[in-house]
Amino acid sequence: MMYKKTKENILIVRLDPGEDIYQSILKLSEQENIALATVQGIGAVNDITLGLFDPVTKEYTKKDWKNENFEIVSLLGNITTLDNKPYLHLHMSVADKDGHVYGGHLNKAIISATGEIIVTILDGRVDRYFDEKIGLNLFNI
Ligand code: ZN
Questions:
Q1: N or C terminus of the chain: which is more exposed, having fewer CB within 10 Å?
Q2: pLDDT interval class at 11 (50, 70, 90)
Q3: pLDDT tens track for 47-66
């Protein structure tokens, strides 16, 4: 991972083959002590796990795609805090060679060629709390 920070507090991030998007951006959030930010990105991946939250069972179902090339059509998310640590929430849609698009809650995404991620740090902070009724870590606002 290589990155630079602009004077507007925006991080321009390049991820290289073999790097995991989620783990890399979480590490970056810890290094830069980010409390609130938006995340966007594009690139190429070949090993991904995406999830779907079931509001009845309150669990995520996960699906893996291994050794398959995808273009990232859209990587979107946010960085907030939970228990005073950066908390990353990302969603991603990807396209295969036929143009079929899959998407979901991002658990894992390994870069195959490059990842071009932009993290826009915002003023202030938003903490999360675990909501028992919904079963998720919600914005505490
Ligand atoms: Zn999600």
A1: C
A2: very high
A3: 999 999 999 999 999 999 99
Q: What is the pLDDT of the chain when averaged over all its residues? A: 97
Name which of 90, 84, 75, 91 is nearest 125 in CA terms.
Answer: 84
Q: How far apart are CA 39 and CA 75, in angstroms?
A: 8
How far, in Å, is the centroid of ligand 1 from the Cα of 34?
A: 19
* CA 53 – CA 140 distance, rounded (Å): 20
The answer to whether the CB of 107 falls within 8 A of the CB of 92 is: no
Q: What is the DSSP string of 63-131?
A: EEEEEEEEEEEEEEEEEEEETTEEEEEEEEEEE-TT--EEEEEEEEEEEEEEEEEEEEE-SS--BEEEE
Q: Specify the length of the chain in residues.
A: 141
How far is the centre of ligand 1, averaged over its atoms, from the C-alpha of 7 (Å)? Answer: 30
